[in-house]
Specification:
This protein is an alpha/beta fold. The chain has helices spanning 2-17, 42-54, 130-157, and strands at residues 34-38, 58-60, 68-84, 90-104, 110-124. α2 (42-54) crosses α3 (130-157). The model has no long low-confidence stretch (mean pLDDT 85).
């Protein structure tokens, strides 16, 4: 029994020593403990707010003197044809999300200069199943918002 406990302790110390973190947990600097988020895409804003709150960041609705600001200036969804059938109809797309943002500290200094986060997904489209295809596309867009939010947080974790 002691041997198992020792092996478990050794494994835990090795994993923690290599910088491993559970997915979704990101260590943000102390300058980003209170944040205001502005975004033209409400779903992306909500996703980002959820991620920030899960990392113990206080999100305020209006900027305060001690809050940083995440300014999402542009959210662009696009779709490119990936495959076509023998009749020339599109049967597959590449969905692309591009988010332009910046992070400004409470003193007005750029913590993250204007940057871009992006996500891509392949999407097979079947005209006969239009309703389920539309729902699948919406789910893929939600996943891409999650990816963009994670990308923004990873960039913010490098602020010094």
């Amino acid at each position: 029994m002691k041997r198992i406990a020792l092996i478990f302790l050794l494994m835990a110390s090795l994993v923690s020593g290599c910088g491993f973190h559970l997915r979704g947990t990101i260590t943000l600097p102390d300058s980003i403990r209170t944040v205001n988020v502005k975004s033209p895409d409400v779903k992306l804003r909500d996703t980002l707010v959820s991620r920030l709150e899960s990392n113990n960041v206080i999100v305020v609705n209006d900027p305060t003197s001690d809050s940083a600001q995440i300014n999402i200036t542009n959210v662009d969804f696009s779709r490119e044809v990936r495959t076509i059938d023998d009749r020339g109809k599109a049967t597959g797309y590449v969905l692309i999300l591009t988010v332009k943002y910046a992070v400004v500290g409470s003193e007005g200094k750029d913590l993250v200069k204007p940057s871009t986060a992006s996500a891509r997904r392949d999407y097979n489209f079947e005209q006969e199943q239009l309703l389920s295809a539309t729902r699948e596309e919406e789910l893929l867009y939600d996943e891409m918002r999650e990816d963009a939010a994670q990308s923004i947080l990873r960039k913010m974790s490098r602020i010094r």
